[in-house]
Design a protein that fits this description.
2 copies of one chain form a homodimer.
Chain A lengths: L22 H20 L6 H12 L5 H7 L4 H13 L3 E5 L7 E5 L1 H25 L1 H14 L2 H7 L4
Antiparallel strand pairs in A: 1-2
The first copy, chain A, binds a DNA duplex (30 and 30 nucleotides) through helix 1 and helix 4.
DNA sequence: GGAATTTACTGGCATATACCACTATATATG
DNA sequence: CATATATAGTGGTATATGCCAGTAAATTCC
C-alpha cells in the first residue's frame, strides 16, 4: 500500500475531494447516498423515496396549492408539476381547482394515495430508525434542523447578503 | 394572524413538514436550495453547478476510471456516464481507454475543460465564501465532514447494521 | 373601469440520476 | 486451458428537477 493509498479505499471514496470544500457538492453527494440507503431499506414499494416524501408532505398539508407546496418543499413550481405527473397518472394524487382563486389548483391525495402513504410510513420509519441509530438520534434531529435552516428564506437572505 | 399562521410564513415554508422528521427529505430539500443559491451566486456560466462539481473532481483526480469516479462522487456508474455526455459533447471531457484493462475507460479533462474549470473556480469560491459567511466557517467545514461521513461506506455499513 | 403588472400554472427542453439488461473483458477455478 | 464468475461500460427507460416562454386569472394603478 503506497502513501497515496493511505487516504483512499479501493473506490477512492475517502480521498480528498471537492465535497470536502464545496458545501453544495457535499449535500448533493449525501443526498445520493441517502436516497439509495432509504430506498433499499424501504424495500420494493412501487414508489420512489422522493415520491413517498412528496405524498407524505401532501398528507401533512391542508390541500395546499401547487405554489404553496412547491415553496414548502423548496422546489420549482414547474418541477413540482412534472414530478406530480406520475402520481396523478397512477391515481394517488389529484388536482382540484381552487374555489376562490381560479388560477390556483389544490393538491390532494386520493383514497388510494392516502392508503399507500399510510402503508409505506411503517417502512419509512424503519429506514429513519436505522438512520437515527447509525447517526445518533439527537444528532440526527439537530442535522435536520440545520438542513431546514439552510433550506429557509432566512438563510437565502443571509447568503445573498440582504440582512 | 391566526395561531396557525404563527408557524408558517406565507409560503408555508416553516410549517412542520416531513423534512423535520425524515433525514432523506431534509438533505434533498437542502440540496435543491443550495443548488439554486450557488447557481445564482456563480452567475451565467454555461455550466450547471453539478457539472462544475464534476469537472472539479475530475481535475482533482488522476485520470480516474469511470468506476472510480462514480464511487468517489457516490453516483451510479450509468448515471455518471449519462451525466458526462453533455460535457463530452461540448468538448470539456474525454474518455480514453485504459492501457492495462481494456474494459476500463479513464476520464480526463480536455484543455478547454481544464481552462473552464480554472475560470469558474473563482466564481465558485465566491459562492462558497458566501455560504461560509452565512453559516459560519467552522460550522461549514464541520457540516461538510458530517455529510462526507453520511456519504461513506462506513456509514452505509452502520445504517445496514453490518458492524 | 380599463390598462399594466403580478401571480399561478402548463408545456417544452435540457440536465440529473437510478435501475435493468446486455456486451466485452478480466479473473478465478477445476 | 476451458469454463464459471466478477467487473467495467453502454443503452434504454423512468423519474427528478430547473429554466423559459406562453396563457389565464387576479390585483394594482391611473
Amino acid at each position: 500500500m503506497t502513501d497515496d493509498d493511505d487516504k483512499l479505499n479501493k473506490q477512492g471514496q475517502n480521498q480528498d475531494g471537492i465535497w470536502l470544500h464545496c458545501s453544495n457538492s457535499a449535500v448533493r453527494r449525501a443526498s445520493r447516498h441517502l436516497g439509495q440507503l432509504y430506498e433499499d431499506a424501504m424495500g420494493d414499494s412501487h414508489l420512489k423515496g422522493t415520491q413517498f416524501s412528496l405524498i407524505s408532505q401532501i398528507a401533512r398539508s391542508n390541500e395546499p396549492t401547487l405554489k404553496t407546496l412547491a415553496d414548502a418543499v423548496v422546489m420549482d413550481l414547474s418541477a413540482l408539476g412534472h414530478t406530480l405527473k406520475p402520481l396523478i397518472r397512477d391515481g394517488l394524487v389529484e388536482l382540484v381547482p381552487d374555489a376562490q382563486d381560479r388560477r390556483a389548483k389544490r393538491v390532494r391525495l386520493t383514497e388510494a394515495g392516502t392508503a399507500i402513504q399510510r402503508d409505506l410510513t411503517a417502512r419509512w420509519q424503519v429506514a429513519q430508525d436505522r438512520f437515527d441509530k447509525a447517526f445518533g438520534k439527537e444528532r440526527s434531529q439537530e442535522l435536520r434542523r440545520t438542513l431546514a435552516f439552510i433550506s429557509s428564506d432566512e438563510f437565502a437572505r443571509a447568503f445573498n447578503g440582504n440582512d
